[in-house]
Design goal:
By secondary structure, the chain is of the alpha/beta class. It is built from ten helices and six strands. The chain is 40% helix and 10% strand. A six-stranded mixed beta sheet has the order 1-3-2-4-6-5, with helices on both faces. Helix 1 runs antiparallel to helix 5. Bound molecules: uracil. Uracil binds next to loops.
Length: 243
């Protein structure tokens, strides 16, 4: 991407300065490559009552997985959804972006991150040289919680095996969890988003490196944190380059 274009995307993010970076490997990343104890993955146990994540959908191909998701009635959200929101993007993506759950517009259109937050997410990705079509975008939940309430633990537990199987098919180099709810559900923690940023976590059975950043909807409300989000995306890009 040329500099003028990059400046345009950064301006869309409300960031006007671009600091040229060399091939500096962040200290945190160096530590991760050495499998430092501090960056060990958090202990991830199986969700209650459904066995190990992914086992339920293991071995399923894209077409069968899509069919299973579309017909899913594993939690009560199936009764209130317009349609499931499977995920979208490059099935061989290096980056897998994971949000919380579909909102009203996503429920209507059947695609994740299509509203204003989605536009900002696209700009955030462009700022690190990624087109929306290059990455894969999904959510912790495939169905919209009524009134956009937070996902309930049983809903996340029932839905995460679908994401696990998407990961098994995509084999991404990196996951980007956007927002506290996505991060807490994926990492099974109640830690704050601020404390989860700028670290290399690992997700699930596949142990894919996972980076946490702010949700674009939050950034629309709190534009002063866009700069921190940009730092997170650059961190993720560095991690991805060293996987
Ligand atoms: N917010 C999310 O977390 N996911 C979407 O798909 C849309 C908004």
């Amino acid at each position: 991407m040329n500099n003028a274009l990059r400046r345009e995307y950064l301006a869309a993010l409300g960031l006007t300065t671009w600091v040229a970076r060399g091939k500096v490997v962040p200290a945190m990343l160096k530590a991760a490559n050495k499998s430092s104890v501090a960056l060990e993955p958090p202990a991830i146990g199986p969700p209650a009552a459904i066995g190990p994540p992914a086992a339920r959908e293991a071995g399923v191909d894209w077409s069968e997985l899509r069919t299973r998701v579309a017909a899913c009635t594993r939690c009560a959200l199936s009764a209130t959804r317009t349609q499931t929101v499977f995920g979208v993007g490059n099935q061989r993506a290096e980056w897998l972006v994971v949000g919380e759950a579909p909102g009203a517009e996503e429920d209507r259109q059947g695609e994740p991150f299509v509203g204003r937050a989605g536009q900002l997410l696209n700009s955030m990705l462009r700022a690190v040289g990624l087109a929306r079509e290059q990455v894969y975008i999904a959510n912790v939940l495939k169905c919209r919680p009524p009134g956009n309430r937070d996902p309930q633990p049983n809903e996340a537990a029932e839905c995460l095996p679908y994401l696990e199987q998407q990961i098994a098919l995509i084999k991404p180099k990196i996951m980007l969890a956007v927002g506290r709810i996505a991060a807490q559900n994926l990492l099974r923690t109640d830690k704050t988003l601020g404390s989860l940023r700028q670290q290399v976590h690992r997700f699930g059975i596949s142990q894919v490196p996972l980076i946490v950043t702010y949700h674009p909807a939050y950034l629309l409300r709190t534009p002063t944190d866009k700069r921190k989000s940009w730092e997170d995306l650059k961190f993720a890009r560095d991690v991805c380059a060293h996987v």
